[in-house]
Specification:
It contains eleven helices and 13 strands. By secondary structure, it is of the alpha/beta class. It is globular and about 55 Å long. It starts with 5 loop residues before the first strand and ends with a helix.
């Protein structure tokens, strides 16, 4: 994969898409960044991310909705992408209870347009974002890509599981090389305002009470954004090939006789929610006022990533300590919001 290749990054104004695009540009790639700039959260934050990317000569922005069938087909026809990193989606577990149709439009119909574009335009490798949410009611830890994930607990999770199934069918039918990445609770500078770290930081600095769900008994495999980006960038040139040892008698969900692979990208180190809050309090130099509440619909009590396959494939595993990652987020937050 040559450095002058053009990579399509969907969701380029989003949290992960922004960081991935910035890394690719720094590595010498040309990037076409797609985003519809929807108002699920503060559009100004998205525009500020985008403004940084647009300062780079090799970045081109396309404002387009994934569900625009004709627009997506035209984009693929007119551009010469070598690879596609698909990160755009309607995110959020709880919002999927309020606005389920947004998840079908973006995560199902939009993903179909990505698959069709890749199929008809000979894309060398499609890398797309799945989520740790697909593990649903699974309780065997750590979560492995070789385990079945057939019991989602939110429509968001179901849409991501559907993406994995759709990707496999295209990989099988058309020989499309596809890699799915299950991200585990990503955090860091320029993060999403609907995520716990952002919500907690804002509330603590304002002297407001934070909501602590499941009475603080949650555990999450918090993964720093730079580690997510490193995993994506290392996997991008690793075009998957069919596994000749795969057997339908004992089907492995993480591998396939098609050029299809799944990987977890997580810190492999789950953190108790109360320890997470204590770390944030230390970084802010403030104590949080806490309201202890029951678990919310759609949430799972714990996540924990098995990253053995990722390490075996690209020699990398996320390892940024929580104190370091939260410290960098707090530094960014204070600077961006002038707090």
């Amino acid at each position: 994969m040559s450095e002058n290749s053009t990579v399509l990054v969907t969701g380029a104004a989003g949290f992960i898409g922004f960081h991935v695009s910035r890394r690719l540009l720094a590595d010498g790639f040309k990037v076409v960044g797609l985003d519809n700039l929807n108002d699920y959260y503060d559009v100004n934050l998205k525009k500020d991310r985008l403004r940084q990317l647009q300062e780079t000569e090799n970045f081109t922005f396309v404002k387009l909705d994934l569900a625009d069938n004709d627009g997506m087909a035209q984009l693929f026809r007119e551009s010469r992408f070598s690879r596609v990193i698909h990160l755009a989606a309607q995110a959020g577990v709880r919002y999927s209870l309020e606005n389920p149709r947004a998840y079908i439009d973006s995560n199902i119909c939009g993903f179909l347009n990505i698959l069709e574009g890749c199929r008809h335009n000979r894309i060398e490798h499609l890398v797309y974002a799945s989520s740790s949410s697909v593990y649903g009611l699974n309780t065997r830890m750590p979560f492995s890509v070789h385990d079945n994930v057939d019991h989602p607990v939110s429509l968001y999770a179901a849409s991501k599981k559907a993406n994995e199934l759709m990707a496999h069918s295209y990989s099988h039918l058309y020989g499309l090389p596809v890699t799915g990445l299950r991200f585990f609770t990503v955090y860091g500078p320029w993060g999403r305002p609907d995520m716990a770290l952002f919500l907690f930081t804002r509330a603590i600095l304002a002297g407001e009470t934070i909501k602590v769900f499941n009475y603080g008994k949650m555990e999450r495999d918090f993964t720093y954004i730079d580690d997510i980006v490193e995993g994506i960038v290392r996997l991008l040139p690793k075009t998957p090939v069919p596994d000749p040892d795969w057997s339908g008698d004992d089907p492995d969900p993480g591998r396939s006789p098609a050029p299809y692979r799944l990987y977890n990208i997580g810190n492999h180190s789950p953190v108790k929610l109360m320890d997470f809050i204590a770390t944030l309090e230390r970084c802010l130099g403030l104590e949080a006022k806490k309201e202890m509440l029951p678990i919310q619909p759609g949430d799972v009590p714990a996540t924990y990533a098995d990253v053995a396959d990722l390490q075996a494939e690209v020699g990398f595993r996320p390892a940024t300590p929580l104190e370091e990652g939260i410290g960098k987020f707090v530094e960014w937050y204070r600077g961006y919001y002038k707090v």
